[in-house]
Structure formats: structure tokens, C-alpha cells
Amino acid sequence: MAAKAIMIQGTMSNAGKSLLTGGLLRVMRQDGFRAAPFKSQNMALNSFITEEGLEMGRAQVMQAEAAGIRPSVRMNPILLKPTGDTGSQVIVNGEIRGNMAARDYFRYKKELVPDIMRAYESLAEEYDILVLEGAGSPAEINLKTDDIVNMGMARLAKAPVLLVGDIDRGGVFAQLVGTIALLSGEERAMVKGTIINKFRGDKTILDPGIAMLEEKIHIPTVGVIPYLSVDIDDEDSLTERFDRKGVGGLLDIVVVRLPRISNFTDFKPFEAMDGVNVRYVSSAGQLGAPDLIFLPGTKNTMEDLLWMRQNGLEAAVLKAAAMGTLVMGICGGFQMLGETLSDPYGVEAGGWIRGMGLLPMDTVFEKQKTRTQTKGVFRQVEGGFSGLSGVSFHGYEIHMGISTLKGDGAPLTVLADSGQAEGAFSGNVCGTYVHGIFDREEAARAALGILCRRKGLSEEAVGAFDLEAYKERQYDLLADAVRQNMDMEAVYRILEAGI
Predict the structure, then answer these.
(1) Out of 218, 331, 430, 452, which one is annotated catalytic?
(2) Cβ neighbours of 405 (radius 10 Å)
(3) SS3 420
(4) Among this protein's residues, is 452 annotated catalytic?
(5) Predicted confidence (pLDDT) per residue in 461-498, tens digit
(6) 220 band by pLDDT with thresholds 50, 70 and 90
(7) Is 394 a catalytic residue?
(8) pTM for the whole thing?
(9) Which residue of the set 399, 430, 435, 452 is catalytic?
């Protein structure tokens, strides 16, 4: 029998759709259902590579983890990865279709409905419940034509809709009433409940407003969710972790907040450790004197390196490296550390630029994207990162460039499946193409051991850490909050009734 479906839509971006979808999935798992997430179209730079080597949005990976199931690219059949302000790389069922300007994609997207429905129907055959997530707002009247992610998808899936408003940013009643007012009669009939999210304070003060809201729109409010402090992966630039100041810790780790930063989940293990501050900086003045500087992944390495060059961050990082600070690049950040970057096929902006010159290598951007899960071991590393020697890791690669070491360049890792050497190190600088390289405790602990020894600290000072156990606790805390603050009986009734 095909799965029942329910859909979470929001009055705006960052209303909390992804988190609430994950919370509902966790509750349903606890209640004994086989449940799975589905988002027909996701725009995000924070992506993931499945076991099959296919690319999907990281938010649906989080939701699959919450549901206790293996991530599948079918959960996010269309992924848009912005390449600039007006265009994106279009990925369909994990494979690149090409780069498109926004206007061209708007005309093209309706052709993707068969791809979307094949993915959806395949999931519906395997699970009891599918929890769908919309994108942005369903009331963007300029985008409603041929919609495939909000009400258009709800109609295709015959999924009743729960509409989420964000009270933390103010005007939640106007958000909900205005969104409902801009929907067609058919669309309004599909909205079966509203949720007020990110509430702080005494709910009894809110109750009169909820009564007036229900009177105006004739739709029940099924939940008032408090502002949650759970530590769960967020979406791209909307994440609040970028604003953390990170003061008072024993160890100070800086991540350069590139304009097109991607896969910042690489640093999640360090963020969750006691005694470790992880700061995201976007100017030279914010750099300070950290123990470790990370250059993260980016969707446009060359332009983000030029941004660093123009605002003084490159010079600040080079000065820190010259003074002995540890510097590590991951994927695009690794490419920046080399001597040259060239783009003969226009994969990014085209042309050639010099790199930061901290690693003896050249990078050429090729047409073919490398997409694979991988595992391996750090080679015999000398210099500042010697404490990583012999440590094993698991992760994934997702990049367009090929980097070639020159002269006395030394690889950082060796990959288990191919035996291929990868990455590079030189003194107190290293880099790798492997995302998630510190997700396993052994690798994260080895990196922290290096920092602790340099500062004369005991490794026990930052505490033990198990990322998988930590994430499971966070998902359970999220589910507890959803159970306590949402009328789950009403949600199950809405799910059962459909539209």
C-alpha cells in the first residue's frame, strides 16, 4: 500500500521547516512507523554523497538520520547549488544536468516532474509515511506558476499541509494570515493546521492571539513549538552557528566564512566538544590568534579566494601561517592553499589565478565532478599535523578540480579502496578533498590532541566525544519537544484523512 503523506510548509525561509520535519520523523519512528523525508527541490550548498555516489541535500540526510533510515537521493530528487546570484548547478536524482540561469530553470523545471514523481512513488512503496518539506513560502505569487515544491507538490502527493510561522522574527499572525490570503481556494483547503515556531515566553499570553487567528483563517493551530537549542544540522547561510562568538574555551578554532561556503558540517564534531570554540569569521579583524584555521569548502573556489584577497583575510591567514598557526583546507579551501588555480572549461569563472602558495600544487577545474564516499588513513605526516599519522577516517569527496603535487609535495592521506594518495601537507599547513574527515571520533580526537599538546593541555580537558551518540541524543531531544508542544493526535488525524 502506498505511504500516507503530510507536508510541512513555511511562511518564509528559515521558519523551521527542516527541523520540524526531522522532529516529526523521529516521533513517528518512536511510534513504530516506517517514515521517510521528501523534498522535491532543495537549494543548498551543503550537500552529501550517498553510498551510490549520488549527490543530495544535507537537510534530507539529517531527516533520514532522525527517521533511523539510510539517506537516499530519492528523498531530494532536485538539488540546486547556487553558482552566483542568478544561476545554479542543477542536480537531478544525484546527477548533474548542467548550470542554468534562474530564468532558464524557471522555464525548465516543469519538465522535471516525471523525475520527481518517480522518486516519490518509489519511496511511497517502501514506507508507511512520507513527511514532505516545502521551500521558502507557498505565497510567492511570482513563482506559483508551475510550482513543484510547495502547493504543486502537495497536490501531486495528495498531502495535507501544516503551515509553519516564525514568531521569533515578529509578525507571526500576519505571516500566517497573509500566506493563507494569497493562496487560491483550492490551496487554502489543503492547509489543515498551522504551527507557531520558535516561541519564547508564557504561552498563555499567546492564547488570545491563537484564538483570533483560528477565527480569521478557520484553520486550527496544532502546535506552538518553543525556541529550541538542539544542535542539529542547518541549511546553508541561514544557520545560526555562523553568528556564534565562541568565547571562553580552552581551544580556539576559526573557520573562514566564505561567501559561498559549503559543507560547513565538516566542523560539527569540534563545535560539539566541551572546551572548544569554533568561530566563523569574515574579516581579518575577527581572526585573532586561533589555534587552528580552517579554509572550508566552497561552490566557487576562485571567486571566494579573490574575496579573501580583497578584504585582507588572505594576508591575515598567510601571516598567521608564517607565525606557526596550523592551517587546514578542505576541498575548495584545500585548492586555495596551492600555487595556481586554472579553469580552462569555465566550470567556475574561467581563467587563471595564483593561489595562496602554502602547498606546492596546481589545481585545474575539470568538467567531470568527483562524487564518492571514501575511507582511508593519514600517511606518515611530518610537521604540525604529525599527530594525524596512521589515523583512519571515513568521509566523502565532491569536487570538480584535480590537484597535482609538485616538487617535494607530500600527500596527506591514502584512500583505502583505490590505494590512491590524496591531499597534501607542508610544515604547519595541510589540505584534503575529503569532507567529513573528522566525523569519526578517532580522527577528531587526534586533531584535538595536536592542539592540546601545542598549548600544554591534557587531552582530557576537552572531554570525550562520540558524534553518532551525540546526534542521536539531539534527535531524541527534538522529538521530545515536538511531542510536548504539538498535538500529535491531530497530526495523525490529518495524516489519515488526507485531502
Answers:
(1) 331
(2) 17
(3) coil
(4) no
(5) 776 677 788 889 999 999 999 999 999 999 999 999 98
(6) very high
(7) no
(8) 0.84
(9) 435
